[in-house]
Amino acid sequence: MDCLFCKIVEGSIPAKVLMETDNVLVFHDIQPAAPVHVLIIPKKHIASMNDVTAEDLGVIGEMHQAAQQAARKLGVDQSGYRLINNCGPDSGQAVHHLHYHLLGGAKLGALTGISGSHA
C-alpha cells in the first residue's frame, strides 16, 4: 500500500508523535496551518469518512478521546480549537487515510458559509 499515513504508522516515515494508543496516532503536521496543528489518525487504514463501517465506530470514538487529550496536552482545551475532517476531493482531502486536523493556539478565522447561529 502506498499510503503516507500507513507508512508513518509502521515507522518507515518519521513523524513528531504527540501521543499514541493501540489504535490511534497523533502527530504534528509538517505544514502547520495554525500555531497548534496536529493530525489524529486511526492506525487501521480507512480511506475516508465515507469508508467508516459499524466495526470502525470504536476507533472513531478513540480518535475523539485522543483529540480531547491532545488539546489538553497542547494547552488549547480551554482557549478553543477546531477539529476538521476533510472527506473527498471538493473538501481538499489530500491523503486518503481518515484523519482529523486539530487546530488552535490563535483566534481562527471564520469558515466560509458556516456560522455559530442556526436561525
From TrEMBL:
A motif (Histidine triad motif) lies at residues 97-101. Residues 4-113 form the HIT domain. Coiled coil: none annotated. Transmembrane segments: none annotated. It comes from the Bacteria. This is Histidine triad nucleotide-binding protein.
